[in-house]
Amino acid sequence: MRMDGQSPAPADATTCSKAAPAALWSLVIPLKPLVLAKTRLAPAAGEALRPRLALAFALDTVAAALACTAVRDVVVVTDDGTAGGALTALGARIVPDTPAAGLNAALAHGVRTVRRARPDAAVAALNADLPALRPRELARVLEYASGFPRAFLADAAGTGTTLLSAASGVELRPGFGGPSRKRHSASGAVEILLDGVDSVRQDVDTGGDLRAALALGAGPCTAALGARVPGQAHGERPGPGTPVR
Ligand SMILES: Nc1nc2c(ncn2[C@@H]2O[C@H](COP(=O)(O)OP(=O)(O)OP(=O)(O)O)[C@@H](O)[C@H]2O)c(=O)[nH]1
Ligand SMILES: C=C(OP(=O)(O)O)C(=O)O
């Protein structure tokens, strides 16, 4: 069951894979207050669109995560009321950023909250800025991760991290921020070396990243808003009835 009392997302035309992944994961997704978020996007998007894009990214990320067959529930750590309301409506559980001590403290708090209720939970931290995220690609990443105590996926730029996992009974030990790929590798986490999971790697920090995410095919919130950013190509995810990759 999800923490909101609903059953895990059913396998459907957009999410199912032939063999169901073995482990079901609790995802912990950190989200800054929108007024403070995505500052590196301001030069490309402008100050008015920046917080709205941050919300759109989070909505598309969480919707895709909840549609993933390998995901049991999604906890978002945020103090943002607007985002909290919209993400709750999608089916996420919101946890306040009570430590207010930065990204890694927020993630540790989210994991503690999950494991207070289910001490044996397998957990994974996932960034909230993955607007092209595809449920099937996330399922492949999590399936790979389930073979290791801790595992991580490098971001599209090759320097950061978009996902860090910890199996049941294993501490997450998040080391996000800046060049975290090296940090997570040095911490003993196994790097997830999979091709064809670009949507899980494509975080959006800059205008160039937004262009790349739109080219991959962003979720509906980002596709709609991205079309208003000057110089961005407009990429939208295939609609229902379109064969999924
Ligand atoms: N809850 C919480 N989430 C955070 C915090 N800092 C960063 N995040 C989230 O962590 C993820 C990765 O952060 P960044 O890619 O650096 O995003 P950002 O800080 O909004 O972007 P910039 O302002 O451009 O640095 C995003 O989902 C952020 O919203 C924090 O202090 N608390
Ligand atoms: C948070 C990270 O990086 P960025 O701020 O560049 O997204 C990270 O990759 O750990």
UniProtKB/TrEMBL annotation:
Pathway: Cofactor biosynthesis; coenzyme F420 biosynthesis. GO terms for molecular function: nucleotidyltransferase activity. Keywords: GTP-binding, Nucleotide-binding, Nucleotidyltransferase, Transferase. Phosphoenolpyruvate binds at residues 161, 177, 180. It catalyses: phosphoenolpyruvate + GTP + H(+) = enolpyruvoyl-2-diphospho-5'-guanosine + diphosphate. Its EC number is 2.7.7.105. It is an enzyme of class 2 (transferase). The keyword Flavoprotein does not apply. SUPFAM superfamilies: Nucleotide-diphospho-sugar transferases. HAMAP family: CofC. Guanylyltransferase that catalyzes the activation of phosphoenolpyruvate (PEP) as enolpyruvoyl-2-diphospho-5'-guanosine, via the condensation of PEP with GTP. It is involved in the biosynthesis of coenzyme F420, a hydride carrier cofactor. This is Phosphoenolpyruvate guanylyltransferase. It comes from Streptomyces yaizuensis. The lineage of its organism: Bacteria, Bacillati, Actinomycetota, Actinomycetes, Kitasatosporales.
